Amino acid sequence: MLIEKPRRTVMNSLDLPKAPQDTRVVVAMSGGVDSSVAAALLQREGYDVVGITLQLYDHGAAAHRRGACCAGQDIHDARRAAETLGIPHYVLDYEDRFREAVIDRFADGYLRGETPIPCVECNRSIKFRDLLATARDLGADALATGHYVASRPLPGGGGRALYRAHDPARDQSYFLYATTPEQLAFLRFPLGERPKDETRRLAQAFGLAVADKPDSQDICFVPQGRYRDVIARLRPDAVRPGEIVHLDGRRLGRHEGIIGFTVGQRRGLKLATGEPLYVVRLDPGEARVVVGPREALATSIIRLGDPNWLGDAPLADLRDAPVAVRVRSTREPRPATLTWDPRAGCAEITLTAAEDGVSPGQACVIYADDGPRARVLGGGTILRVEAERRAAA
């Protein structure tokens, strides 16, 4: 009697137990080179690829602006890339969702004296929630994007983990910390293990017209980077002039609204004091900008609100856990410790070495270590920093 051996499950390149031709992948195509190449790579491997482009905002002012994203020209470029690849392509109108979840929250954050990051909220609320749900409705097995970040299966079939990209100069993990474990299980990032210059070469090889297209800017819905104009248009009654005050109490000048300032800012203060001054704190209740010397910016303790956790151990169990954190997208991870504060109901970061310009509203992203390929453990929104508590004392 022959005993039939159990068949070994063969996984495809996306870590799914199907042949590529039986695996449907929805690709979020923004019209740029990265998402177009992501779609091309999957199509070349034989996957059932469907491209979706989101129209996120009124593109009148940005339709032909270099560096715009998800506007008129970009939709055209995405459609053309899909035609070149021979894959179906759909454009979905998400303008109302984007305005409520991203643009309105962006404006409200500035009025609270914060420096929000709309890209984080766009990924969390629009791409990885709403678009992901649409991909499931289309029968997709995965949603792929052109982000430079890596994900790999955890041992023992325990989901997937998120890591910094192969190319540190292009790493976008800072903007994806809010991805949940459930979303991460469905997401794939075909470019995470590739350098950007290889992506450009592949675009040329695939015959994509976007091969030399400039990269998109962070704040896609702000024409020419004038975010103050956008906020003033959205909240005209909330923009109030006020005083610029030194930490020692001196009144140094006036301003036209706190939305024109961010913690750590030096340029544009228009103060003739003979000393270098930086924005240390914003007081939205009094429409006051507080300035001081650079040493007043030094921050060693950060409290995080709305945390997202991707680590193995429960966040609530952590006490002085060694980690590395990034307080701005342009900075490398720095050593720190992480503790969950049950009384405050938030995570508290203690930096090994103080940093300047830590601003409420920005993200603090937590990594397992400060290495170039470190695992992303999560993060949260910066609520309160030690420098602010000292300044208020």
Tag the structure with descriptive keywords.
single chain; 393 residues; alpha/beta; Rossmann fold; SH3 type barrels; Elongation Factor Tu (Ef-tu), domain 3; six-stranded antiparallel beta barrel; five-stranded parallel beta sheet; 8 helices; 17 strands; 26% strand; globular; disordered C terminus
Please provide a written account of the structure.
With 393 residues, the protein is of the alpha/beta class. It has three domains: 20-224, 3-Layer(aba) Sandwich (Rossmann fold); 240-295, Adenine nucleotide alpha hydrolases-like domains (SH3 type barrels), CATH 2.30.30.280; 298-392, Elongation Factor Tu (Ef-tu), domain 3. It has eight helices and 17 strands. It has helices at 33-44, 72-85, 95-111, 118-137, 181-186, 196-205, 227-234, 386-392; strands at residues 24-28, 48-55, 89-93, 142-144, 150-153, 160-163, 187-188, 242-246, 251-255, 278-283, 288-292, 299-309, 321-326, 334-341, 346-355, 363-367, 375-385. A six-stranded antiparallel barrel has the order 12-15-14-13-16-17. Strands 3-2-1-4-7 form a five-stranded parallel sheet, sandwiched between helices. Strand 14 and strand 15 (346-355) form a beta hairpin. Helix 3 (95-111) packs antiparallel against helix 4 (118-137). It is globular. It starts with 23 loop residues before the first strand and ends with a helix.
CATH C-level label of the largest domain: Alpha Beta
Q: How can the largest sheet be summarized?
A: 6 strands, antiparallel, barrel
The helix/strand series, from N terminus to C terminus, equals EHEHEHHEEEHEHHEEEEEEEEEEH
DSSP strand content? 25-35%
- The quaternary organization reads as single chain
Give me the CATH architecture of the largest domain, please. Answer: 3-Layer(aba) Sandwich
Class by SSE composition? alpha/beta
Keywords: ATP-binding, Cytoplasm, Disulfide bond, Nucleotide-binding, RNA-binding, Transferase, tRNA processing, tRNA-binding
Domain tRNA-specific 2-thiouridylase MnmA-like central: 239-292
Binding site for ATP: 28-35, 54, 146
Active site: 122, 220
